[in-house]
Amino acid sequence: MEPENHTKATLVDLLDRILDKGLVIHADLIVSVAGIPLIGLNLKAALAGMETMVKYGMMKAWDERMRAQESEARSQKGTFLSNGEEVLLTAHGGWYCRHGLHPAWRYGHLYLTPERLCVYQHPFERMLFEVPLTGIVRLLMPEDTPSEDGKVRELHLVMADGHIEKLRCTEASQLLACLDELQVGEGVTLDNTVWKTLWRGSRGEGPLPSMDTVCKSS
Q1: pTM (2 decimals)?
Q2: Phi and psi of 136, rounded to 5°?
Q3: Phi, psi angle pair for 11, to nearest 5°
Q4: Distance CA 175, CA 166 (A)
């Protein structure tokens, strides 16, 4: 294959050529000090459009996996609510995710129904957090939580297994009132084993609530 010189070629032509035909880079790099080779680097890279990549058998599994995920997400679009499920409250909200390397707040829309509480992310059609109301033992609204214009507050949910889930909601007071009206956690007591788990798991996350505050009497 002989190289061709196109004097009128533009950057757009170059990008089109790369995406359509592809570009392969194969390089060997050796770092030497005083004539002594210390580090060797063997680099192989391919750059092309996904259609070209798949055509030549590269990244095919990844492409199929991503297409399957997107297809599943589209099929589930708007189906996070069951048929006839009543929405009692909806508001902008967030859930504190402790999973992964960097725990952080993840935001979406908060929905409360007579059966469950969830945070759903509409742009990605993804359920961030979901819990049945029967799994909530106690509701806490810390006084020192951050707020924006006096509207955004945190609501902590003490779960039946002793761990705490943290939610942020622009209508936290209204959410708390709705949960109280549904008698969430009424008549539920945390036993000593669960309380100890809760106590240990809450260390390092600010002031701990007293046992009388967290546990409800039967």
Answers
A1: 0.55
A2: -100, 125
A3: -65, -35
A4: 13
180 dihedral zone (left: phi>0; alpha: psi -120 to 50; beta): alpha
Rg of the chain (C-alpha set)? 27
Element (H, E) at 214: helix 211-214
Instruction: Kindly tell me the burial class for residue 20, based on how many C-beta atoms sit within 10 Å of its own C-beta (0-12, 13-18, 19 or more).
Output: exposed
Structure tokens at 31: 């770092």
Q: Would you state the structure tokens that stand for residue 99, as one six-digit string?
A: 């999973």
Q: How far apart are CA 192 and CA 199, in angstroms?
A: 10
Q: Residues 73-115: pLDDT tens digits?
A: 666 555 677 777 899 999 999 999 988 778 899 999 999 999 9
Assess contact for 156 and 139: CB atoms under 8 A: yes
